[in-house]
Amino acid sequence: MTTRAPVTQDVMTIPRKLPESDKMNLVGLTRDQMRDALIEAGTPEKQAKMRTGQIWQWIYQWGVRDFAEMTNLAKAYRAMLDEKFTIEIPEVVSKQVSTDGTRKYLVRIAGGHEVEVVYIPEDDRGTLCISSQVGCTLTCSFCHTGTQKLVRNLTAGEIVGQIMMARDDLDEWPERGTRKDETRLLSNIVLMGMGEPLYNFENVRDAMKIAMDPEGISLSRRRITLSTSGVVPEIARTAEEIGCLLAISFHATTDEVRDVLVPINKRWNIETLLEALASYPKVSNSERITFEYVMLDGVNDTDADAHRLIEHIKRHKIPAKINLIPFNEWPGSPYKRSSNNRIRAFANIIYQAGYASPIRKTRGDDIMAACGQLKSATERARKSRKQIEAEAGLK
Ligand code: SAH
Ligand code: SF4
User: If you average pLDDT over residues 125-143, what whole number do you get?
Assistant: First the structure.
């Protein structure tokens, strides 16, 4: 049995810490980078690999943040580590719990910026939706994050730090010296929070490698899903260098409509995108690609759209499942959600064609934690209407 989050809505605010020192943060370094940093700090080269392995396990397997607790290292060595390094993750500024158990965290990263992280408990799994950027350079017209300017990319440490933060909150680090892997509260990761992960490729890749490392958080690559709006050149790299599952924000079946909904389509159109997707499963040795399709009333939700969607996928022989997302409204959003009957009819056409067509349950919308509603309340830098239109090529 998984533990359920309380069914109340509560908001708590945690006091902020003062800015940290200029010590180097070990969180987010790859194994090679950590090894180099330890050598730089005076660790004999011959020992560096072993020390990396030990420290790695303390940080990522047992969730330790204090060098003093790393009892298999000599005291003097721990003191040296403490002098030169820190183990830091983003700080939780506030946490809200939805009536359905969904938890939304606002976390603060260096520079005082804030991003949102959402935990979604289900009967057989728990999914953490993490962010890769503060804001987004893209301007998908139905997405709340898209109205916020890109402030900056998150570092690898800030990305994997979101997972560590959630494990803290769920109290899910195993006892020292043990591995508790059976039923995890946090069993799946989706890169579906704020930002376009493939515009922050290296940091996302390094963070996911850390999350997958068997001597640490050890999440299987099949439990990690990266969602992209369609940055075609990086799709092949994702297959080769990360190998996680892929979700594609498809959302329209003609270039004309997709150009408006997902403006990156003007750079890489539907046909180019489908070609890149067709080779993904083989290269990454994964099964199906998830096509995400947001249901917008009168915009992309006709029977003809459903048939065209299937035709695209079949033409390229892409193993696929189609995830229909009822549009989540946000203040000032220019679209309406398709009716339930329309969504069901659309799903049925897809199902009849032989594809799974689950309708995504809206989770956490009472706390604005649902898909596309994320936008940190404190980051009010808004793109001007003119700028959005210019980027979308509408004017
Ligand atoms: N930038 C990436 C990942 C973040 S968005 C991407 O675009 O894929 C995660 C998913 O939520 C995407 O499929 C996105 O299209 C969808 N989404 C955005 N705004 C939404 C909204 N208002 N309602 C429903 N889904 C939305
Ligand atoms: Fe950015 Fe994804 Fe939102 Fe588009 S849907 S604006 S790519 S976060």
Answer: 93
